[in-house]
Amino acid sequence: MTPSNVPDVSLSATFEGVTRVDHTLYVVSGETIDIESINLIDNTKKGAVIGSASYFWDYYRLGGTIVAPYGMKINTEGVQLGNHLLQIKVSIYAVDYSPCVGYMEYPVKIVASESDIPTEGDIEPSPTVSLVIKADDDSE
Length: 140
Known about the structure:
The chain is mostly beta strands. 0% of the residues lie in helices and 59% in strands. It has no helices and eleven strands.
């Protein structure tokens, strides 16, 4: 597929319970990562919707949802301190385009206490992050 086969849509995910510092999400051990919503902006103006969202932690599937606002809560109780990877795969259906998938891969660092979260850099509590869109067949 060529880039012209991909609809002009934008996606964002809104988080609570995390702090983004530069490009890493920091979470205090035992706290819940709350992905409140995934939102789609249809720049094609033809009609586009999210079909589902699937969530992965360190490459293992946690689950998914087909219900708006497509959020999920991830409990970090018992999760090993250190670096992890959160991935979200969003299926997108737009009029006059092949099915597409939006991917988000974000590094997550589980820390022992709030004092372990860096205080310098690009800091954003409860961030909204963008997702990248590409043509795909929507298979898991």
